[in-house]
UniProtKB/TrEMBL annotation:
Transmembrane segments: none
Residues covered by the HTH arsR-type domain: 1-86
PANTHER family, alphabetized: TRANSCRIPTIONAL REGULATOR, ARSR FAMILY, TRANSCRIPTIONAL REPRESSOR SDPR
CDD domains from the UniProt entry: HTH_ARSR
Organism from which the protein derives: Paractinoplanes ferrugineus
UniProt KW keywords: DNA-binding, Transcription, Transcription regulation
Record keyword Transcription present: yes
Taxonomic lineage of the native organism: Bacteria, Bacillati, Actinomycetota, Actinomycetes, Micromonosporales
Superkingdom of the source species: Bacteria
PROSITE patterns listed in its UniProt record: HTH_ARSR_2 (PS50987)
Protein name per the record: Transcriptional regulator
Length: 102
């Protein structure tokens, strides 16, 4: 599974958003998201297999954090679409200014 497919699921996006703020253990994520431990673990496994998160073992816990590589790849993939929308929005802005002046 690739990163885009992994984060397409809304619950996994919530986990990613939480991990964007701070690396977290499964217990932290369970508390923050109001989900069961098995559900969080299942989603973390998918995110880990897609390379979106990594886990570091600290004492009795695994601390999950985002892995930047897949997000760089997503950003590169989105770049042409972002440019397309920027161009279209700039044209709309010019059109609206012309209408206001006319």
């Amino acid at each position: 599974m690739d990163a885009l497919t992994a984060i397409a699921e809304p619950t996994r996006r919530r986990i990613v958003e939480r991990l964007r703020v701070t690396p977290s253990s499964v217990g932290d994520l369970v508390a923050a998201l109001g989900m069961s431990q098995p559900a969080v673990s299942k989603h973390l496994r998918v995110l880990r297999e897609a390379g979106v998160v990594t886990a570091e073992t600290r004492a009795q816990q695994r601390i999950y954090r985002l892995e930047p590589g897949p997000f760089r790849e997503l950003d590169a993939w989105l770049a042409p679409y972002r440019q397309m929308w920027t161009t279209h929005l700039a044209a709309l802005e010019r059109h609206l200014k012309t209408k206001d002046q006319g």
